[in-house]
Amino acid sequence: QEHRYSGIVEDCCCDYETVDHLNVEVLHPSLQELVKTPFFRYFKVKLWCNCPFWPDDGMCRLRDCSVCECPESEFPESFKKPYHRGLPSDDFKCQEGKPQAAVDRTLDSKAFRGWTETDNPWTYDDETDNSEMTYVNLQLNPERYTGYTGPSARRIWDAVYSENCPKYPAEELCQEEKILYKLISGLHSSISIHIASDYLLDEATNLWGHNLKLMYDRVLRYPNRVENLYFTFLFVLRAVTKAADYLEQAEYDTGNPTEDLKTQSLMRQLLYNPKLQAACPLPFDEAKLWKGQKGPELKQKIQAQFKNISALMDCVGCEKCRLWGKLQVLGLGTALKILFSVNGEDHSGQTLQLQRNEVIALMNLLNRLSESVKFVHEMGPAAEKLIEGK
Ligand code: FAD
């Protein structure tokens, strides 16, 4: 079947067919396994509505919006505080952030050996601040339709686009600003595709399923939204492969040797996959950017814009959307950090240091994008046929 999007993904180094093939054959299966491992399924996050721009608008209380936190008994052994092992699991409730689920500040340094406490220069949150943090089991809180819509959701996207990165296409945009726009648009496409792929079709019977019309209306109708999704996928993939040596040697210890060995081996399979290296060795070429005299100044400007986008995630009224918004923006911030803030490229001579949570965000983001690319590839033609009658 002919591919609707052909040729090279704009600003990238691989074509659409290759991306689809690699994704279905190699990346998607490994990523799906990886995100289930204990190391990658617990994300540490501050879930309070803590918006620096607007007051809480009460959207947190939507039923499908609440996040199930982890009771302590559910953490892998070495994630726990030494004196609080084995709490009964029947205190498990699916509800908003509870103070008692806050994480001991000292937990990270005790439990996550080998991981540094380091802040991400691209994000608004201080990643080293562990107060009011909660662990969320991402497997129990899938990104999907939540009912979060209307002016509350709209003003976030409007702020993201109009305040932080001017509308595209604008010919006068320089390459770097265009890339920031494409990353945000690609993430937005991915979120819409997850809503479409896991949608509440019938509230009365609680029936969930695909909503192909929604995918068509929000994403497929606009070819550049699909292109931006592929672009974002390749950008994050490049960051992961660029950090391969670091990620390969990182510590994935959660106190469960069988699971932890599996995590390590899945990471290796992803990072050094011969098929990936043969078909798409350089998914994105970051060396092309920040050239010229204005480079450093431009980078600072874009970093500040991305930080604002990161701060806006605290204004997302729906808790589950906020969780995935924060995770994915941290994942993008981590990709930006890997590609642009280390190894002398910002003349700081820094070597790469990632925090455990950044790696969790990065790999979960890559998995989400991989799911979206697969869904578009597999269901896109059916959606177009349904709507356009092709
Ligand atoms: P929206 O998706 O709100 O889009 C607003 C406008 O942005 C569109 O009219 C269009 O002009 C432009 N636009 C849309 N897509 C793109 C694109 N890819 N590139 C460029 N421009 C674009 N809802 C859920 O049900 N589940 C979730 O998990 C979820 N997570 C969210 C996370 C965040 C960070 C935010 C801000 C919102 C989230 N939402 C979620 C809400 C969801 O994204 C939509 O806002 C909501 O469903 C209403 O959709 P809409 O049709 O009004 O268009």
Automatic annotation (TrEMBL):
- Please list the residues that bind FAD: 144, 146, 157, 185, 188, 218
Give the UniProt subcellular location, in the record's own words.
Endoplasmic reticulum membrane
Q: What disulfide bonds does the UniProt entry report for this chain? A: 60-65, 318-321
- Cofactors: FAD
List the active-site residues. Answer: 318 (nucleophile), 321
Can you quote a single GO CC term? endoplasmic reticulum membrane
Mind listing the UniProt keywords for this protein, alphabetically?
Disulfide bond, Electron transport, Endoplasmic reticulum, FAD, Flavoprotein, Glycoprotein, Membrane, Oxidoreductase, Redox-active center, Signal, Transport
Which protein is depicted? Endoplasmic reticulum oxidoreductin-1-like
What high-level taxonomic lineage is stated for the organism? Answer: Eukaryota, Viridiplantae, Streptophyta, Embryophyta, Tracheophyta
